[in-house]
Amino acid sequence: MKLKNMKALVLTTPKNIKNLMKTQFAKPEGKAGQFFTLAMNVFNFKLYNAVYNFVPKQPGARILDVGYGNGDTLKRLDEKLDATFYGIDISQDMKVLATKANARAVATEKMFLSVGDVEAMPYEDGYFDCVYTINTIYFWKDADRAMDEIVRTLKDGGRFICGFYSKAYFERSEKYQYEGETYYTTGELKALAQKHGFENAKIKVVDEKRFMYCLVGEK
Ligand SMILES: C[S@@+](CC[C@H](N)C(=O)[O-])C[C@H]1O[C@@H](n2cnc3c(N)ncnc32)[C@H](O)[C@@H]1O
To answer: How far is CA 23 from CA 4, 151, 179, in A?
Structure first.
């Protein structure tokens, strides 16, 4: 990000910053999207590491990242695992950024990045060994439809991993809450997963002080 753009960001009002954060977390775009996704990479690395720990490690696995942002998690996983990676994100700009970050994997067809919505995914039934998503569930307009799609595209026995901040994180102050977003307690997210067939869903604590958790379940 250029210094001029950074200055503009720093000098803006708190209300503008809040609006900017709302749009840039939900659908990062342009230079600001580049800046905010980079910041997420720093603040959320514990969630990324946790997802790595829970991802199945068998060679040749097909793994989907829902809401891949700038593609940092995909890159970390691709460096460590012998798997084929897929990603879906509603932001065209994130596809450009994530493709740049993962140029070799994309060129060699080890990674396939798409623009699209979790609520209507372009993948076959039972295609994935694992679907993971980090910090996206708050933005899903219809969580039941999204969960149906995740279940549909997972193989029997496939794993779903959802890294998230619990509702308590957002409830600390109104300044962390945005209209149209949905926040979940650990119990609420577990109940949502169980309702969609992840009967063995478990909540793993990533960093309790920072309200970071992972839900892990098998279809
Ligand atoms: C807060 S960012 C998190 C990015 C990345 N997962 C990370 O942790 O760095 C949320 C991402 O989810 C994407 N997103 C939001 N709603 C989505 C939806 N309905 N379907 C697919 N992607 C979505 C956004 O475009 C954005 O890239």
So the answer is: 21, 28, 11
